Amino acid sequence: PMLHFGYGWLERAIPTVAVANPCGAADSVEKAWCAWSASQAAAAHVLIDDFVFDAVFIAIMFVSTGIGEGYYLRQIWNQCRKDYVPAVKTMWKTSFLLMPLEFCLFRFLPLRLRVLGMNLIEILWDAIVSFMIHKRRKESNGGMMEDGMDGTMGGEKLIPS
74-90 pLDDT, tens per residue? Predict the structure, then answer.
């Protein structure tokens, strides 16, 4: 749902398709972008998707996977403090490789198919995010998790075997 609403807002704010009277837009955000060409608008969509939406998505992934795996919020927070910025930087590097394809999707696909197209691209992207999130949850010494993230706290098992 986040992408559906996010891409819908982007299309309203920065249209990639011709509209009858773009400068007659009521919203001040829409007025600011009304003079852009479709290609410029698609490029803006790609940049906002890659640098804003993706950063938010990575934070959501850290929290949701941590909760799903039974970690305490303190443990998730400690991992985020260590790994969030490196994960975002890695994802930005990955996004640079995917930008030409994303540009084509934002420029030429109608809004109703855009989320589907981006979801196909993001299968690869999500695999890389998952790897980045999980790579530090295990130490190299026998698979034990760091910072009490091995499912125990003070000898008490938190995560069922």
Answer: 999 998 999 899 889 98
